[in-house]
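chain below, 340 aa
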Amino acid sequence: MPMEAQRTIREELEQLEHQQLREYASFSDKTRGRDRLEEKCIFRTEYQRDRDRILHCKAFRRLKHKTQVFLAPEGDHYRTRLTHTLEVAQIARTIAKALYLNEDLTEAIALGHDLGHTPFGHAGERALNQICPMGFAHHLQSVRVVDLLERDGQGLNLTMEVRDGIRNHQLAGNPSTLEGCIVRFSDKIAYTNHDIEDAVSAGIIKERDIPNAYSKVLGLTKGERLDTLVYDIVCQSRGKNHIQISQGVSEALYGLRDYLFKKVYTNKRAKSQERKAEELVQHLYLYCLKHIGVLPVEYQSLIEDKKEPRERVVCDYVAGMTDNYAIKKYSEWFIPNVWK
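prediction:
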C-alpha cells in the first residue's frame, strides 16, 4: 500500500492546518504535549481531543446551574455560567477563523476557561478567597479541575497550550498563544455585552442609559457592539504575531465595563442577595472542614491517597457545587427537619 494511503485522518487534518493557517498559529502537531504521554487519536488532532474532553466532563455540565451575574433569577433567558461560556467560544472562534489561527485550540480554551467557577458567581469566589488559607481564584481553580479533579483525581491530561490559555484568560493574564489571547479578549467582549442585556431585562438599567461616549464608538445595540469589537480586533491583528484592539475601541470597551461595575455589578438591588450567598458558602466550607466524612469518596481520596491539604480539597468540593446543590446541602446541614 502506498505511504500516502496509510496516513490517518488526524495527519491529514494536521497537514491542512499547515496549508491553511498563518505562520503564527498554534499547530496541532507542534503542541508542547501533555503531562502524561498518550497514543494519538487516528481521527482527531490534539486540540480537538482537548475540546471534546472538556465538553464531556462533569464540571462543564455543572456550569448550567451556576450564576453568571444575577443569583437565582426568575426567568429562562438570563445567562448562566454555561451560556456565558458558549458565547465566549462563539466570539473567539469567529475571530480565530478570520485570522486563520487554530480554531480548535481557541474553542478548547474558551470552553474550559470558567470550569473552576464557584456557585453564586463572584460572590462565591470572594467567600472562598477570604476563608481558605491558600486563597481562591477561579482561573487557577479551572486549571486544577482539568489537571486533577476530573475523572476521580486523574484529571483530563490536556495539552500545555490549552491549560496555559485557561490559566491566563483573566484581565491580568498573558497567554503564550495567540489563540489564548483571543479567548482573553472574547471573555470581556461576551460578558460586557450580555450583562448589559441581562441588566436591561432585570430593569436595572435601560439601553438608553449607556453613556453616549461608548455607544457612538461601539454601537447602540448588542449586535452592533459585537460587530464593532470583533471587526476591530480582526483588522488590528491581521498578519501580526499578537492580538490587539485599537485604542479608541479599547477605551470604549473598558469604559463600558467600568460603567457596568458602577451600575450593575455593585448595584444594591441587583446584588441584594450576595452577602447571604457569601455567608452560605463560608458556612459550607467550615462545616466540611470539620466533618471531612461528608465529602464524596473521590474528594476524601485526594486527602488520604494524594496527600492534598484538607483545606484545599474542601475548597474544591464547595467550589464545584452548583447554586441549587449548595442551597440543598446548607438546608440539609443547618436547617432542622420538620417533625412528622
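The mean pLDDT is 94. The chain has one domain: 49-332.
thats it, cya
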